[in-house]
Amino acid sequence: MLRITIPEWPHVSAERKEELWKLVKLRFEGLIEEHMENKLQHIGNLWKCSKLRLRTKIKKAHEKGWSDDKINSDLKPEAVDLAGWLAFRKEAESSTCVVKSNKYKELRSKNKLAHTMSRKGYARLEEEMRARSGGADVTRADLWIEGHKNKKGATS
What we know:
Elements: H1 14-27, H2 36-63, H3 68-75, H4 82-92, H5 95-109, H6 121-132, H7 140-147
Helix pairs in contact: 6-7
InterPro entries: Probable_transposase_24
């Protein structure tokens, strides 16, 4: 388990990352050392997302007018000790964190089109479209339109 008080993934010690890798190898058979970087990166992303969800819950709790006691009792994960939770809350509620959150909120609001391609990318989408059409050429316009369709098939 990683402490939520560690500010960012690069601050996690190499020893701790090695311990995490050993745990992953115990859980999943057939992993080789070449998988380590990818799997640790995935763990880091999950850890970062869990901290982001906690920050969001704290922010919404404040908007609802929750007391500090209610926030601590309802939102603190069981695996986190009270001192670590209070340190995390202090960082999450700090002015620098709020400014950073507002900055990225503003940047997201400027996006005109939703991200709909997952991690496939245009190259693999083009291959897929070419295979569906029996090898016919795919225009850039058709590729762009296909790349911006949502799950229901409508363009965003």
